[in-house]
Amino acid sequence: MREKHGKWSALFAEKGATLSNYFLRRVAHRWDAQDLVQEVYLRLLRMESSDAENIRNPEAYLFTVAANLVKEHAVMRQQQPVGSDGLEELFEQLSTPCSAEANVDRELRRQRLGAMIQRLSPKCRAVLVMHYRDDMSYRDIAERLSISTNMVKKYIVKGLATCRQRMADYE
Amino acid sequence: MNDRGNFDAARRARRITEQAAAWYIEQHDEPDTRSRAAFLAWLRQSPEHVAEYMAIAQMHGDLKSAASLEKLTSDELAEWAGRSNPVVLFPQHNIRHVDQRVGASSGKWRAVAGAAVAAAVAALALLGGMHWRTSNLETHQQVVAEAHAVRSVTLPDGTLVQLDKGSVIDVSFDAHYRRIDVVSGNALFDVGKDPARPMLVNVGGHVLQDIGTVFDVMRGTGGDTLTVISGHVRVWNAPPAWPNETKTFMDTLRDDSEAVADLIAGQQVTMHSNHVSTVRAAPLNEVTAWLPTDIHFQRETVGEVARRFNAYTTTPLIIEDPRIADMRISGVFHANNPQAFVTYLASLPGVYVVQGGDRVRIVASSSHGNDHAGKL
Asked: What is the ipTM of this complex?
């Protein structure tokens, strides 16, 4: 089970952009990313406190709830069955109807984000690139830049938050 | 206009984003049971937390793909990171000297270690009110606004400076640094981009780190006032022997937690020689009251005019399309009404206006591609 959660979390990270774009474009269908979030939130709230104690990995739980909601909604909307385990297929299906457009969007987003990374402070930029492009460990990055691993984490948090905020300005 | 409301909302949104990012990193770094429980409690506090956490997870995925666009090797990045920090600096060292020169009351001053600065300023002063030396990268210049008029100067790096009546700044650019001393009076900076040469502005024992920013500095005997109009500025304590220690100072500028204040658009602090006030919402109308009430322009580019408006507003105009930015226009607008200028721009052929929460983007109609965009 744990493995599956991890997989969903990774899938969401990978396909999340496609997913929310898909929803955002269909605001007219009265189901959008906001609704998804609201519903996820309500389900988190409705948990009994004993349930909450038993959740060993809240992040995995969060993404599982989200993924299931997406799935339920897809079933409702498309009126066609989705394989019980076919989350990957589902993502494919969701993005297929507008895949050309989605690809353009994704590439544009990637270019903007690439340019944004270059505008970060030199240390933040170095940390992000070493982490995301070169897959270096926190410790290796820390050593290379003569800073603490704690600072490496701080820079990644800062980089994530800054990119998130600046990209939100585009959307 | 509800500056205060916008400002609070922006600050709140930023805090949630940073919390979400911190939780994300922590949850992916072998969290213990307590950390996981705390994380779940945070998620259950607000749907905004849920939304932001998902957005950060998405950004994490996007960054993996976007970081591959980076051309520099990790060695080059490390080298650059070790050397440069974009910094704006505000020491108070030369203030006594300055006040004597401009004849203002000097107040009570602490013993300062800035003899070198004072000597350098004195040397410049002896040479006269204006001092110019400009080469390819080198610029050494004292800019003085006349007693009866606000002055606007564009420096060689593209930095736009507006000086209140009678204000004085010293500009000293070399191959490594861009240094500016706010000597006296009131100055507003729109800092030009030059990643290879950090910007260092001197005012009062403090250092500011800027990230594409418009900010206003007012010297005063009761402390210097810093107001961020748009963008983001971080304040540090300055080293005692500025500018001789520039390089050492930059090298030791590692730990963000040593910053003494962090300001975003619409915020203000008062900087005293031994402390910095808490960050407060800025009365922007008062801060920019000294700027001209009308903006006149005669065959200037749209980009230049937009920057002049950006001195007045926390929602700056961003001209994204270079062809639009280079278009030349003439006109007169009330400075406190950037919306009129936006409407004017929107009426030009091929121009679209995209109204965002903290900025107004001006784009070419061909790149118009989302539902929030609209022709005004």
From this structure: 0.77
